[in-house]
Structures are given as C-alpha cells and as structure tokens.
Amino acid sequence: MIGRGLVKGMSITLRRFFDRPNTVEYPEKKIPMTPRFRGGSLVLDRGRCIACGLCAMACPNAVIDMAAETGEDKKKRLTAYTYHAGLCLFCNVCLEACPVQALSWSQDYEAACYRREGLSTDCLAADQRGDKVG
Ligand code: SF4
Ligand code: SF4
Known about the structure:
Elements: H1 4-17, E1 42-44, H2 54-58, E2 64-70, E3 76-84, H3 93-97, E4 103-105, E5 120-122, H4 123-129
Antiparallel strand pairs: 1-4, 2-3, 3-5
The protein binds iron/sulfur cluster (2 copies).
One iron/sulfur cluster binds next to helix 2.
C-alpha cells in the first residue's frame, strides 16, 4: 500500500506525543543519579578509615595521595588524603579494596573546571566540612 510507512510513522509520532517526556530541562531540573553511579568524586569517611593504604596501593593510576602517622596508642591515623579526579578511571577498585567501606562516590556530576588542579580534592578537609555523599 502506498503511504503505509507514512501512516506507521505518524502513528508512532502521535503515540509518543502523549507520552511523558524522558528528558528534563537541565540545568533547571536535574535527574538524581542511581545509587551505583560512579562519576562523581571519591568521598572518604575519615571516622571509618584505618589508614591501611590499601586503596592507594590498589589504584592502577596512582590517583590517591595519602600519608599516615602512628599515634601514641599505636593506631595509624591519616594526615593527608588527596584524590586527583583528573587521573581517575572510575574503575571502583579502591572501594573494593577498602576493608572497612570508608570510601564511596558522591552523586555530583557537575565537576568540570578550567584548571587541572581544580580536579584534586582534599578528602580530609571535605570530610571535616561534612560534604554530602549523595
Ligand atoms: S576508581 Fe580506580 S582509578 Fe579511580 S581512584 Fe579508585 S582505583 Fe583509582
Ligand atoms: S583502604 Fe579504606 S581504610 Fe584503608 S586507607 Fe583506604 S580508605 Fe582508609
């Protein structure tokens, strides 16, 4: 039949016309990320961290710079923990290596900046400020 394709196409158009839209008017509206989203920043829970260094050792791209000291009670404590997002592969290996689940991903996906240095996060300072995980 001549015009069959046209009728079929128009019927799909009509059906979609009354559907709810799948898009939002970004940046006024934002879609919440899924709980397993990896693309934000690495978030450190300092209270949980035992300064074992496994995350930094497991990282394939040397993204995590950390330093620790041993206190009088013989326990190790972090003195520095910097995450360089510009080098991160978002592979999740650091989270899997952590024995105490002290790492997680933030839900923030607007991390663009003009200078590479802006992609580095002092996770200890962020934890002190109470920056939200999601
Ligand atoms: S996600 Fe992968 S590349 Fe990024 S810090 Fe963790 S281990 Fe390193
Ligand atoms: S692996 Fe976990 S506990 Fe060990 S230093 Fe990294 S964040 Fe801290």
